């Protein structure tokens, strides 16, 4: 089994915690990651699309897909 990694900017990880990442078997260039942070009393979940960077040999966020809060 090949180890896969995702790269996030330090600033992003200072504010949020990675909840999970999905690496689909049939779409190896793409991935989805969920990050959670707290805004006052609300928990905010952000969903990011990741794209494989051949140079870094890792997935990097390219777009925020959704923002969910409670």
Q: Quick one: how many beta strands?
A: 4
How far the N terminus sits from the C terminus, by CA atoms, comes to 37 Å
Helix-strand sequence: HEEEE
* Structural class assignment: mainly beta
Tell me the Rg in angstroms: 13 Å
Order of the strands making up the biggest sheet: 1-2-3-4
Number of helices: 1
Q: Averaging pLDDT over every residue, what do you get?
A: 92
Helix proportion range? under 10%
Task: Catalogue the unreliable spans.
Answer: none
Number of domains: 1
Major sheet attributes = 4 strands, antiparallel
Global shape: elongated
Beta-strand proportion: over 45%
Question: In summary, what is this structure?
Answer:
The chain contains 1 helix and 4 strands, in the order αββββ. The chain has 70 residues and is mainly β. The protein has one domain.
């Amino acid at each position: 089994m090949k180890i896969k990694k995702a790269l996030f900017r330090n600033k992003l990880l200072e504010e949020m915690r990675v909840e999970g990442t999905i690496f689909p078997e049939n779409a190896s260039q793409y991935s989805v990651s969920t990050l959670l942070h707290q805004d006052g009393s609300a928990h905010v979940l952000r969903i990011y699309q990741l794209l494989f960077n051949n140079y870094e040999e890792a997935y990097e966020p390219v777009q925020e897909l959704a923002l969910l809060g409670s």
